[in-house]
Amino acid sequence: MDLGNNEAQTETQCNYARESIDANSPMTEEYRRTLLRLMANQAYGEHHASCLYQPWINRAPGVNERCIISKIVCEELSHWRGIVELMGELGIPWDKVRSYQSFHHFYPLVRLYVPVMKWTDVLMSTFLIDRAAFFMLEDYAYSSYTPWAKTVQASLEEEEEHGQFGMEFLSDQIENLGLPLVQKALNKWWRIALNMYGPPKSRHHDTYLRLGLKFRSNEDRRQIFIADSMQRIEEVSLTIPKLIHNRYPYF
How confident is the model at residue 161, as a pLDDT? Predict the structure, then answer.
């Protein structure tokens, strides 16, 4: 995963080199506040994913599926614990982590559009959402905060495996349930996945780049995800959903 010279950084000068800060390094209040917010947001996302998959350990349709879902739950919880421990090194107790996170529209959006999860929804979540999360975590893997970068680097391979699981079992469900039903689920989750990245440029975008905590904009990551997903969608013989509004928000 070598990103070389990132063009995204040319629009805002980065003042912190990759992996140049550790827990004992002097930090400005701005750096510490921004770092804690981003790590708390990641911790919430990892924990939310484990809660989403957990009920399917006993509800998935086959032995292999249940074992893989169980593995995903354990890995998501392990990722959550890793971030909580990093924040603990900065003096934040684990039960106070959520007080540092910012509001993210994505989680209420999922509850609104998918009030009752079905197995096809679980598969679409691993197929699309876990893959979308991978491109978000890539930024953190190259961050200026060394402990965070190394923790995320260690988890990226597992996150990629989650998306691969979704792709493999999605193919099986196409055979079992038929293409139209799976396509319907894709149409719903495609819009959710595209909105996961938020507006093209967040109000904190310049700060994230300047502090070296991210290196791409929301739109940069969304376009990378779209290109990657289009190829994967075609590989399983599904059709890329048409959008009424081909811009954020995609509803």
Answer: 86
Q: Total domain count for the chain?
A: 1
pLDDT in tens, 118-137: 988 998 888 999 999 999 99
Look up residue 198 and give its two tokens.
């938020």
Give this prediction's pTM: 0.90
CA distance 57 to 71: 9
Q: State in Å, rounded, how far the first CA of the chain is from the last one.
A: 33
* Alpha-carbon distance values, 234 to 133, 211, 239, 241 (Å): 20, 38, 7, 11
Q: What is the CATH number of the domain that holds 191?
A: 1.20.1260.10
Is residue 65 in some structural domain? yes
Long-range contacts of 112-119 (CB under 8 A, 24+ apart): 113/188, 113/191, 113/192, 114/188, 114/192, 117/52, 117/55, 117/56, 118/185, 119/56, 119/59, 119/60, 119/61, 119/173
